[in-house]
Amino acid sequence: MTQKEGPGPRNVAIVGPYSSGKTTLLESLLYVSQTITRKGNVDEGSTLGDATPEARDRTMTVELNAATAEYGGICFNFLDCPGSVELQLETDNALMGVDAAIVVCEADPHRVLTLAPLLQFLDSWEIPHLIWINKMDRAAASFQEVLEALKTVSTRPVLPQQYPIREDQNLVGFIDLITEQAYHYHPDAPADAVPIPAELKAQEQAARDEMLEALADFDDHLLEELLEDIEPPQAEIVGDLKQDLGADLIVPVLFGIATADFGTRPLWQALVKEAPAAAVTAEKRGLEETADGGALAQVLKTFYTPQGGKLSLVRVWQGSLADGDSLQGDRMGGLYRLMGQQTTSLSQAKAGDIVAVARLTQAQTGDTLTSQANPSVTLPTAERLEPVYALAIVPEHRSDEVKLTEALNKLKDEDPSLQWEQHGDTHEVILWGQGEVHLKLALDRLRRKYGLPMTTHLPQVPYKETIRKPVQELRGRYKHQTGGHGQFGDVFLEVRPLARGAGFSFDQKIVGGVVPRQYIPSVETGVRESLAQGPLGFPVVDVAVTLTHGSYHAVDSSDQAFKQAARLAMQEGLPQCEPVLLEPVDSVEISVPNSFTANVLRLIGTHRGQILGYEAKTDWRGWDVVTAYLPESEMQTLILELRSLSMGVGTFRWQYDHLDPVPDGLRDRLLAKTHGD
């Protein structure tokens, strides 16, 4: 059964770069719709969203905020998303569950580039979106300049729906390009209709023609009307806007000043007239109501609250949810509507709703949830971001070590872009994320929510060592007398280097039983243990060891004695093999706008990197991908420098590739520091 559009809910994400004014716009939307009676202020920490201590300390959105409002008889669920590039996955996960997005940006053509990754994501998933240009009171550039800049970062046609009216560079109103009616703004009141200023008629007509021509690319009837100089009816224009926006064919542009509520009402009207309903989005995804009415939902965000425990914010795609239902075998412990940090109990949620479900123990962000035991549908999820920055963490109080694992796993549930590990070589607990701000935020939550203050440092680089020179006849003789029973083991070893990456091999050439067979595994164990720390102080790799000869005592020989003999042979012999210090080298793919490619090439050079090449990034207009090898020691602050030189949009992927000898000068400094410690 095909789903039909009705007056049901519409789910809208508010997205955009850091400090563009997203939370302020949400506050304005709620105030204008009379959902709240008093507007909050971000700087004062009084907004409905961003109510956590972490958000208020930083005066920025650090996690998803949900709010519901009604306008024009339609219920809207808003998701206010973080703007920091380091919290991108939070935004991506939210976008997978909405019907449309408002992209908020500043009226500055030089900062438009920061929208590129976001617009790319929206277009790759065909998520309808419009752009709302905020802070028009601070605009130094013309409206047309901002539009032209937006066109360079959008793969879809960018078309204005309004044209600004200014007096002495102050924004005082706008012209609606659909109705060709001008309006003047008023504080705390709807705008008044006024005649179009004579000096703007030419610009208004040019902007309107641009809008209509863009729409005509997808409507042959409209194209015929324009060619014949027939004025298209307003209803036809609105219908085209609605259809083309819903299909992610166009990107309408509106503007305003969120702090003054200028432009908020026209934005509301555009959402009512043009934004797709929840049922339309479900149909577009190929989801149709099942005959049994079974529920289908997806987790967009996971919260751990001090009072209610685990909350899963879910989009209901099909069917309905009632308090007490089970999803994936987990019985719901409550159903709630979220308004920032406030919760309202619900008895039921219908298809299209975004609600919070309590105590779904197993559910994780991105999971598809059904009332069926064997779900037939798995909803798509946002790509998991690979970590690019790490800190080693140590509890300030040793007694907290036992609580750390549980707390870190909860943080990871709330924010899947966090990862952690106990490093096998350095034995450090490493917290991985998307940047310095991201990890500081996680550490702040560890301290505040879980009472676990941490000290931090950059992770140790897992250096290794190998040998250059083979050596034969390395002898290890262990003889120890204790009372009436002694210990005796005697071995001769041959050690030689292997090719890089070959690892370790052990062999034996014993003839005549000079070393009994049962003791040979102990010899290998002793060799392996000795490789844990070589002459330079690091694990030894890429060596082959062969047991060639030895002797034993019928009474005093034992597994322990032969293990100790092997250790002695290696400890005394490895320094003769010309040990070499090795460092891990990573393969890196750096993505940046091509205007920054030259800077990236220089950056790689300053980090002892080897450039392998660069080429245009597939499906990313105006972007390059630079491939290189970089020593792991040079990667630790790479993301900070890369974002600094690329307006925050540059990023990279990496994976371990190989080991290389450390340059002599750096080796000497490292060894001096290591041995000094």
Characterise the protein shown here.
This protein is an alpha+beta fold. Helices cover 27% and strands 32% of the residues. It contains 17 helices and 34 strands. It has a seven-stranded mixed beta sheet with strand order 2-3-1-4-5-11-6, with helices on both faces. Strands 18-17-20-13-12-21 form a six-stranded antiparallel beta sheet. Strands 26, 31, 32, 33 and 34 form a five-stranded antiparallel beta sheet that branches. A hairpin with a 4-residue loop joins strand 8 (170-176) and strand 9. Helix 6 crosses helix 7 and helix 13 crosses helix 14 (559-573). It is elongated, with a radius of gyration of 32 Å. Residues 1-6 have low confidence and may be disordered.
Short characterization:
This protein is α+β, with helices and mostly antiparallel strands and 677 residues long. It is built from 17 helices and 34 strands. α6 crosses α7.
The count of β-strands is: 34
Number of DSSP helical runs: 17
Percent strand equals: 25-35%
CATH topology of the largest domain: Rossmann fold
- CATH hierarchy, class of the largest domain: Alpha Beta
CATH homologous superfamily label of the largest domain: P-loop containing nucleotide triphosphate hydrolases
Q: What's the topology here?
A:
Elements: E1 10-15, H1 22-32, H2 53-58, E2 65-71, E3 74-80, H3 88-95, E4 100-106, H4 116-124, E5 129-134, H5 143-153, E6 158-160, E7 162-167, E8 170-176, E9 181-186, E10 189-194, H6 201-216, H7 220-227, H8 234-246, E11 251-255, H9 264-274, H10 278-284, E12 296-305, E13 309-318, E14 320-322, E15 326-327, E16 330-331, E17 335-339, E18 342-345, E19 348-350, E20 354-358, E21 368-370, E22 389-395, H11 401-414, E23 419-422, E24 429-433, H12 436-450, E25 454-457, E26 464-467, E27 471-482, E28 485-497, E29 504-508, H13 520-530, E30 543-551, H14 559-573, E31 579-593, H15 597-606, E32 610-616, E33 623-631, H16 638-645, E34 651-661, H17 664-676
Parallel strand pairs: 1-3, 1-4, 4-5, 5-11, 6-11, 29-30
Antiparallel strand pairs: 2-3, 7-8, 8-9, 9-10, 12-13, 12-21, 13-20, 14-19, 15-16, 17-18, 17-20, 22-24, 22-25, 23-24, 26-31, 27-28, 28-30, 31-33, 31-34, 32-33
Helix pairs in contact: 6-7, 13-14
